[in-house]
């Protein structure tokens, strides 16, 4: 059976056109002029399912390249499983995630990766892939990088934060970047000066400053900027590309922009929380409420230019992608681990369900174009992480990952109605312009009529190629 999505406006990174989209099985068969004889014939055919998208945008399914389902952190686990988290992603128009398998210092890379495969297999509602977090760089680990690239895991994340847990020093980072230079992989960096942050956090706690807001105060934006600059210099020495995850600060963005102006393979993502939330109103909320906004890097001050600079970075392509860093922890019994010390609050927010809607607000506000919305949320993620044109495009031969989006509808956000396994919402009560109406994942309608029609295990593991964004 074939499906024809008709009367909609197909939005790509190149612009919007009136077109019908013909789906056959799991793939897009054709993109057709709506008044053509072929389109008119298909609309009247009894062998074709007709979906009317009049007044809607037809966009490629979202790709969230930064999620942490079931991540162990601070004595607990992220509250979304691969089953609940990918189902929530589908509700929000995301049809592919790339999650992070974690190797901690002293652990075997292969065994760590196998643990993540076991968590995800047969449980995901949408397609998924993995990056590999490297927590200990030694000769064995470096050889494993080559093996994993051959198996379709072509990106590796290193941390300049969290000493004693995931931290890598400059020498280890340089060695990993040198290996990436040889095997074509992309190094992803969590850029914060973790050694200095630990000093500041210890000093604050010793003064009795234990409220959630001090999580942000002790992780100043300058230390993100410093680490970003340092990682860029290491990448230049190694001759390797580098991709900065969850960039939050003007200082860090300035270093990325300067490197890109030099023609270097330096890339960065930001996340919705850094575009909309702030230190004073959210992380600094009364009582323990701010714990719900603890993430790393932290939310930045509304009295500085971070929000405006990040939107500008999205417009200029100094920021290439919007991801979520989805890593949810419930307030009850999880965030509450840090009631007496902000350092013990599990770091992370739950936003995988809301990314497409939140970045569409940038279109509504005139910050970015419709084309840039699609580019940052779908097309560039596919290209950056070796999935294009199978993903990230509405084109013949691409997977039929398609979202029908109604710009005239409203999305109301609440913990009572969201689909993430999370007992609060960082965006409680927000009303957004636009709403996901229908979601196809490889040709199967998994969201329509206000209901979920998929099943655990619908998603397939994606073996990825090398990045297609490098120059």
What do these coordinates show?
By secondary structure, this protein is an alpha/beta fold. The chain has two domains: 2-59 and 393-409 and 417-452, Urease, subunit C, domain 1 (Roll); 62-384, Metal-dependent hydrolases (TIM Barrel, Alpha-Beta Barrel), CATH 3.20.20.140. 32% of the residues lie in helices and 24% in strands. It has helices at residues 37-43, 82-91, 109-120, 139-150, 170-183, 194-206, 213-217, 221-238, 250-261, 272-276, 279-283, 306-316, 355-364, 370-384, and strands spanning 2-12, 15-24, 27-32, 48-52, 57-60, 62-67, 72-73, 76-77, 94-103, 127-134, 155-159, 186-190, 242-244, 266-270, 321-322, 402-412, 431-441, 444-448, 451-452. The strands form three sheets. Strands 1, 2, 3, 4, 5, 16, 17, 18 and 19 form a nine-stranded mixed β-sheet that branches. It has an eight-stranded parallel β-sheet with strand order 6-9-10-11-12-13-14-15. Strands 7-8 form a two-stranded antiparallel sheet. Strand 2 and strand 3 (27-32) form a beta hairpin. The radius of gyration is 22 Å and the shape is globular. The model has no long low-confidence stretch (mean pLDDT 97).
Q: What's the architecture of the largest domain in CATH terms? A: Alpha-Beta Barrel
CATH class (first level) name of the largest domain: Alpha Beta
Per CATH, what is the topology of the largest domain? Answer: TIM Barrel
- Per DSSP, the total helix count is 14
What is the multimeric organization of the chains shown? single chain
What helical percentage do the residues reach?
25-40%
C-alpha end-to-end distance: 41 Å
Question: How does the major sheet shape up?
Answer: 9 strands, mixed
Q: Any idea what the CATH superfamily of the largest domain is called?
A: Metal-dependent hydrolases
Mean pLDDT: 97
Backbone shape: globular
Unreliable stretches (pLDDT < 50, length at least 5) are none
Number of strands: 19
- Give the number of domains: 2
Q: Classify the secondary structure makeup into a structural class.
A: alpha/beta
C-alpha-based Rg, rounded:
22 Å
Percent of residues in beta strands? 15-25%
């Amino acid at each position: 059976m074939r499906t024809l999505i008709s009367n909609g406006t197909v939005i790509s990174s190149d612009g919007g056109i009136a077109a019908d989209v013909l789906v056959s099985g799991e793939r897009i068969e054709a993109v057709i002029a709506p008044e053509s004889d072929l389109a008119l014939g298909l609309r009247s055919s009894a062998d074709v399912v007709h979906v009317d998208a009049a007044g809607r945008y037809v966009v490629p399914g979202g790709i969230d390249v930064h999620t942490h389902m079931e991540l162990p952190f601070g004595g607990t686990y992220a509250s979304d499983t691969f089953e609940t988290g990918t189902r929530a992603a589908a509700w929000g128009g995301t049809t592919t995630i790339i999650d992070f398998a974690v190797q901690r210092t002293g652990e075997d890379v292969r065994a760590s990766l196998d643990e993540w495969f076991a968590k995800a297999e047969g449980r995901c509602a949408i397609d998924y892939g993995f990056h590999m977090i490297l927590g200990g760089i030694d000769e064995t680990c470096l050889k494993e990088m080559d093996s994993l690239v051959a198996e379709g895991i072509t990106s590796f994340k290193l941390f300049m934060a969290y000493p004693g847990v995931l931290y890598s020093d400059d020498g280890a980072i340089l060695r990993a970047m040198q290996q990436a230079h040889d095997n074509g992989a992309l190094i992803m960096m969590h850029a914060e000066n973790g050694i200095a942050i630990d000093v500041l956090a210890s000093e604050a706690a010793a003064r009795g400053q234990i409220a959630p807001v001090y999580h942000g105060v002790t992780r100043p934006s300058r230390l993100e900027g410093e680490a970003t600059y340092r990682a860029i210099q290491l990448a230049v020495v190694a001759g390797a590309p580098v991709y900065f995850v969850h960039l939050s600060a003007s200082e860090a963005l300035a270093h990325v922009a300067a490197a890109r102006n030099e023609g270097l393979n330096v890339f960065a993502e930001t996340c919705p929380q850094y575009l909309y939330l702030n230190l004073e109103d959210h992380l600094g909320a009364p009582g323990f409420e701010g714990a719900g906004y603890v993430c790393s890097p932290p939310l930045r001050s509304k009295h500085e230019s971070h929000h405006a600079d990040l939107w500008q970075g999205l417009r200029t392509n100094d920021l290439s992608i919007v991801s979520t860093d989805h890593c949810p922890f419930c307030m009850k019994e999880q965030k509450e681990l840090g009631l007496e010390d902000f350092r013990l609050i599990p770091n992370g927010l739950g936003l995988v369900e809301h990314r497409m809607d939140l970045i569409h607000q940038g279109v509504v506000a005139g910050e970015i174009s419709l084309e840039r919305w699609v580019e940052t949320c779908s097309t560039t993620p596919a290209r950056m992480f070796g999935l294009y044109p199978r993903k990230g495009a509405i084109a013949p031969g691409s997977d039929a990952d398609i979202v029908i989006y109604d710009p005239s509808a409203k999305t109301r956000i609440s913990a009572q109605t969201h689909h993430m396994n999370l007992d609060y919402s960082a965006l409680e009560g927000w009303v957004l312009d636009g709403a996901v109406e229908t979601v196809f994942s490889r040709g199967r309608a998994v969201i329509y009529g206000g209901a979920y029609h998929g099943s655990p295990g619908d998603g397939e593991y994606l073996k990825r190629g090398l990045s297609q964004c490098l120059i």
